[in-house]
Amino acid sequence: MRRDGGRVELIGVPGIPLIQTGDDLAELIAQALQANDLTLLDGDVMAVTSKIVSKSEGRWVDLDSVMPDDEALRIAAQCGKDPREVAIILSEAESVSRVRQGVLIVRHRLGFVCANAGIDHSNTRPGGQWRLLLPVDPDASARGLRQNLERRFEIKIGVVISDSHGRPFRMGTVGVAVGSAGLPARWDLRGKPDLCGARLQITEVGFADELAAAAGLVSGQSDEGIPVVIIRGLAYPVDESAGAADLVRPPDLDLYR
Amino acid sequence: MRRDGGRVELIGVPGIPLIQTGDDLAELIAQALQANDLTLLDGDVMAVTSKIVSKSEGRWVDLDSVMPDDEALRIAAQCGKDPREVAIILSEAESVSRVRQGVLIVRHRLGFVCANAGIDHSNTRPGGQWRLLLPVDPDASARGLRQNLERRFEIKIGVVISDSHGRPFRMGTVGVAVGSAGLPARWDLRGKPDLCGARLQITEVGFADELAAAAGLVSGQSDEGIPVVIIRGLAYPVDESAGAADLVRPPDLDLYR
After folding, report:
1. Distance (Å, whole) CA B66 – CA B88
2. What is the pLDDT of residue B3?
3. What is the β-pairing status of strands B45-49 and B158-165?
4. Is residue A255 one of the residues assigned to a domain?
5. How many domains does the structure of chain A reveal?
6. Which pTM was predicted?
7. Count of CB atoms within 10 A of residue A245's CB?
8. ipTM score of the complex?
9. Could A112 and B164 be called an inter-chain contact, meaning their C-beta atoms sit closer than 8 Å?
10. How far is Cα A185 from Cα A208, in angstroms, rounded to an integer?
11. Which chain A residues are within 8 Å of B167, Cβ to Cβ?
12. Of A71, B42, B143, B202, which has the most beta carbons under 10 Å away?
């Protein structure tokens, strides 16, 4: 977070190919950087969409392979979705949060509350019968990508794995962090003095979420999507242990259960 | 939103003075730009914190001037807040959303759901007895600021008025747009083809919120806060009629009433 009125750059990395199962993302990102005369600098944050991470991890499910159980059939009838799709969503869910016509919101096994368990059926595979799940452990994916890129470029960076989520009280989706590494996902500014010398009461910033939202401005959503964005010029403390899981509000603090 | 892998810059504008009631924000911003060898370019988005807009509009309330009524006293007992503070919050609220110890979440008269009706008691006035309300009509404030800056600089820009909000299911605050002008607050990408030629189903992006979150990375939260951030390099359609009110999910679509 800048405190000197400085500049932050959001640099889209073009030329990332369609990702296949088993692809080495760090290698493909390094190639795309080189092809575009770009490099990574110490302190950069690399924002990567969850979609390409999932694809590299082969998180596909064939809709035709799914046999919906009674619960899936019941919920599918309530929300009007394909029972097989509902079965996939439930397989990724810890609990069901809200069901209405056209709406299925769950608490994902990773903790966050989102529509359709973050399962994707756009920009995926031709044919339309495939669904793409979120990465198994996006914080681990972020740590792996960070380690790999740091070794290649001999620098220290942060990594954010972003997804687009709807919000309960706001229209439109925004980028949020489903995985992160090397930076404080939550940045606690409590206790710092404010402009009048008083102590700030609650100023814990969802730093990784703001990074994901910023990257979303560049990455776009459609046919020429840019799945990798470098965020350059921020001063933030390196944090080896933090992850986007820190952004999940524990159920007992969840005010809208 | 870039589709060519381009660069977006977030440029903090230093040197904005402490804002007083009646100050001409456009004039002070223009002075700060000049003092820092900065200018505005066609298509820039100017992100401004709601705090300085409120201050220029004199949205102060003296805590000692408030006489809490029975409802305020009752709710204050439930959440453990100062009854006068609760009375101010209720005066800005359309309805009460959640009350718990230490927590008072309301639907603001402007439509959005947030803690403490967005009322600020950090970075405000020395003494601690003053509270700062959100602008009366932040979309109108954004339109006014846009008009003034466009006239001065002879360009077209977008304006976002940002605030930091908590989220029901996520820890940490992020920047959101409470006002906007000149840009699509919600950007509807439905119907555009995705990478596989299929039509995207729901990709309405909370564009003004992503802008506010990106600006939050630069503006910081504490003693050297940067309340004005230029966002440069985005390609977005000019929208004369949109405002951040478009981001409010109507109560009948609110899934967590």
Report:
1. 8
2. 43
3. parallel
4. no
5. 2
6. 0.93
7. 17
8. 0.92
9. no
10. 5
11. 167, 206, 249
12. B143
